[in-house]
């Protein structure tokens, strides 16, 4: 109690407490050892439930005890089912009694520690198996736990399980999230729960938005009110950034945008609008040729670019692209330039969505003047401008990403630089589509301040020559998505390794990586695996001034590659 003098603890009292702790520890250790011994012997019976129950009430966070307990429950429930195979009612009654005891235990453990992952998981596991679940009680328990701590994500997860098992209408849960958000705009868990519900209750029929336009407009308005009420709280800002998620390209999922058939090299290249797995590719492209589909993204199970390697793809071999109503035989090349344009420049919004975005933009711009050190108003304003009209707002968007935001939020300067690069690349590719017909096989993307390559892979079906000199690239892993590349120039960047170009780049003949600050030949040694590489320019890298490194360079690449360490 306050203002009550604290009595000093005597040595005798300290010794007494120590002995009590030792006694409790011995009891706990003996029970634990007995539990482990029974598990090792396979004696997963009622005694295991009794021992583990006592231990878990003392410490519900020992996940191993819960694991052993589940193993015992499975065996005991199987035994009950076998003994009552002819009497379903009796079987269910005994199982219900067994699981009721488990629910009592987990409730006690949750009261001991409301954030016990093991206890919440066990409760959900039991709920899925009990013959007579009380879903209303579970919802009340969740409500109680959330009143104690609205951020208890274990409880939120359990609530999702209850709603799934009880088939509770999503609209009811959406109303629940309404209440939680309105009670406290800072409740990020409620915002997150809301995001998962709206995508299912109000899906966008075109699949391009996280939800339908009218609902999205309302959510933007709700988020605007929330962050305007408390600009320092990040919950509504994070939710708003999710509303700008642009991973929704087409309602039907990833669509094919490019197919290139090279009968001389016996390969087929497929470019998709989004990542897909090998089975999807095999169902989409039919051919009589033997071979296998390989993802451009190394060992990834899904990829946006796939390469079919064959030894029997001759002039008369049929290659058919089948997708939805599309069924076309591809001789050399097939492209959907409209789909590519839609990916590079989504359509500008109209109606209520446009109005909501304009209102949010105005609010963010006002907040940016009131809260000059807060990054969020400027960042969300930038996303608003990009969604409203990326082309018209191009310069202001880049100014925010490359100047203002790195000053406000230096720890995420790299993220802003990558986002700006993606925007620059998209704009460059759009201009190339407008200026050239057919799509060029050579691109010169020099002095563009690039740190990433955005959606450059959309041109993978044609691109064979690429100049990325005088940018700020630290990695060129994205070039793996351009397997037709033959010539690539990477001079004056910040690249430290070319390992990503060693496998899968079977067409690579020329690489120039001058002036990149490379200090060791080992940083580029993996290039020797590129089967067709004939010339390699490494001028003006520090290792070129080291005689031992030059000897290593000759040893690594031998006579098969003409290595140029000095300008002629």
From TrEMBL:
Its EC number is 2.5.1.60. Transmembrane segments: none annotated. One of its GO terms (biological process) is prenylation. It is an enzyme of class 2 (transferase). It catalyses: geranylgeranyl diphosphate + L-cysteinyl-[protein] = S-geranylgeranyl-L-cysteinyl-[protein] + diphosphate. Residues 1-22 are annotated as: Disordered. InterPro entries: Leu-rich_rpt, LRR_dom_sf, Prenyl_trans_a. This is Geranylgeranyl transferase type-2 subunit alpha. It comes from Plectus sambesii.
